């Protein structure tokens, strides 16, 4: 958790600190990912069970507590899986570099890069669809910036090559994010109809 402020305030310095730590995946998950991934889940649970999704035109859909808990657990598991998938994507994309980092380091890097996305979940306390999309888009842009800043240090490559690598990784990350979002919406819609 000590890297959250640094990633938002001074990402260059924080990425250097993260690289020097050589953190294990289990430590990283227990001290960062599990906690940070809970932010959007808890906020969405509170927002959707207390206020309801504001779909515009004075139409809101409020979830029951049981539905909110069930969907929250699924959402949480999808987020944790998404971080692991992105770690594998970064590891796969780095296959042609001579100083290819281990899968462990790639997963840790993916978890730290996802920090803005985790923090953007705070907006789900007031689940207004357009506001959630706007804040999520801004978080995705900052995540791209963190990739651009972190990749050169992480893979020991120059900035020009880093732009290509981080752009490709971000594109795949957006695809994974969209799949997770679609799964969440489908599960949420199915859960709303079931319960």
From TrEMBL:
Can you give the residue ranges of the Yip1 domain? 5-178
Q: Which domain of life is it from?
A: Bacteria
Kindly list the places in or outside the cell where this protein is found, as annotated in its UniProt entry: Membrane
Topology with respect to the bilayer: Multi-pass membrane protein
Where does the chain cross the membrane? 33-53, 65-87, 108-129, 135-157, 169-193
UniProt entry keywords in alphabetical sequence: Membrane, Transmembrane, Transmembrane helix
Its recorded name reads: Yip1 domain-containing protein
Q: Which organism is it from?
A: Winslowiella toletana
């Amino acid at each position: 958790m000590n890297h959250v402020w640094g990633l938002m305030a001074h990402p260059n310095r924080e990425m250097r600190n993260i690289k020097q730590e050589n953190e294990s995946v289990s430590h990283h998950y227990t001290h960062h990912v599990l906690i940070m991934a809970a932010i959007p889940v808890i906020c969405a649970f509170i927002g959707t069970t207390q206020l309801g999704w504001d779909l515009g035109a004075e139409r809101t859909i409020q979830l029951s507590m049981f539905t909110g808990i069930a969907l929250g657990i699924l959402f949480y598991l999808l987020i944790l899986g998404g971080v692991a998938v992105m770690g594998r994507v970064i590891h796969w994309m780095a296959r042609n570099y001579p100083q290819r980092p281990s899968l462990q380091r790639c997963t840790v890097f993916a978890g730290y890069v996802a920090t803005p996305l985790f923090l953007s979940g705070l907006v789900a306390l007031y689940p207004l669809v357009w506001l959630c999309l706007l804040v999520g888009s801004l978080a995705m842009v900052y995540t791209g910036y963190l990739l651009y800043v972190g990749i050169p240090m992480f893979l020991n490559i120059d900035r020009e090559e880093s732009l290509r690598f981080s752009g490709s990784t971000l594109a795949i990350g957006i695809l994974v994010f969209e799949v997770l979002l679609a799964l969440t919406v489908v599960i949420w819609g199915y859960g709303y109809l079931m319960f």
